[in-house]
Amino acid sequence: RRNTSASGNTSSKNILTTEKEGLMSGGELKSIQGTSRNLQGKGTIDDATAYTFTINGGDVEKTADFSLEIHSGEDCKNAEDILALSVDPLILCMEDAEEFPGKLLITLETELEDGTTLLFRYDPANREAQYVRKLNVEDGTAAFTLEKGGDYFIAKRALAGSLNDSDTTGEQKLIRAES
User: Fold this and answer.
1) What pLDDT, on the 0 to 100 scale, is given for residue 72?
2) Which of 42, 39, 144, 41 has its CA nearest to residue 90?
3) φ, ψ for residue 107 (rounded to 5)?
4) Engineered SS bond to 129: which of 42, 100, 106, 158, CB 3.0-4.6 Å?
5) Whole-angstrom Cα distance, residue 139 to residue 89?
6) What is the pTM assigned to this prediction?
7) Distances 83 to 33, 49, 89, 104, 155 between C-alpha atoms, Å
8) HEC-encoded secondary structure of 69-130
9) Cβ–Cβ < 8 Å for 40, 51
């Protein structure tokens, strides 16, 4: 049976920390593969947002070096579209990390308001938001699992259709007015 709890056992002796920020080395991934141990790395998006990514050894499928850097705002090539799709989103661009080594638990320390919000994945081919899941933010912290990279964003809501559809023009105007 495959262990799919990316958070696994959280005792400190069960968590290894990556040697380099934003990089899980192949050696580190191999050392936990098939075990109940976790490998954890950290990074920052900006002054207000930090992230931690964790993988459980039972979820490791690939053991090549894995670089996970999350960018936001102008550093994201699809930021303009994402801003048109939603009101005041927290943009999480991981376009350079399309293939993950397995299921990752991503924990964000943010200035988001506590409560329920939504996680979306941006579909560049269709220029639309794809709903991923609801997120609970508590004390500015949100946690979720992902299995592939790309451009994601957190927002209270997003445009229901594509930016390419002319029948979404009214909703696009409403979103721009709210932002």
Assistant:
1) 84
2) 144
3) -115, 125
4) 158
5) 18
6) 0.82
7) 38, 18, 7, 26, 10
8) CCECHHHCCCHHHHHHHECCCEEEEEEEEEEEEEEEEEEEECCCCCEEEEEEEEECCCCEEE
9) no
